[in-house]
Design goal:
129 residues; mainly alpha; rod-shaped; YtxH; Gas vesicle protein; transmembrane; Desiccation-related_membrane
Length: 129
């Protein structure tokens, strides 16, 4: 955001410099006395100073508004991200619990059938001994 404000301030400064230069040249080449020309230059300089001051206040107000909007957006984005993160954590926890239950039921099923299958060879081994 500061890069954009630097661009705007540069544009405003260039505009003001051009306006002052143009006014000075126009007044210097006008067919008037030196005192009258200086007086007009001073008036124009005061007018431009006033306009620049007004424009600065306006730009400051706009920048403040933009800052508030950006703050609101960032708060909203953070809230949405937090909600989505919470939902993701819940989904992962639920999926992990489901996988755990499947594994436990598979172990119980395999354990009962393998226990009986393992018991038979051991009985045969005992009979041979």
């Amino acid at each position: 955001m500061s890069k954009d404000s630097n661009n705007w301030s540069g544009y405003v400064a260039c505009f003001m410099l051009g306006a002052i230069t143009g006014a000075a040249i126009a007044l210097l080449f006008a067919p008037q006395e030196g005192a009258e020309t200086r007086k007009q230059l001073a008036q124009k300089a005061n007018e431009l100073k006033s306009k620049a001051s007004d424009k600065a206040v306006e730009l400051k107000s706009k920048a403040s508004d933009l800052k508030e909007k950006a703050s609101g957006y960032s708060t909203e984005i953070a809230k949405t991200a937090k909600e989505r993160w919470g939902s993701l954590v819940e989904n992962v926890a639920s999926s992990a619990q489901e996988v755990k239950q499947r594994i436990q039921s598979a172990v119980v099923k395999d354990g009962s059938s393998s226990t009986s299958a393992e018991a038979q060879p051991s009985l045969e081994a005992q009979e041979e001994a």
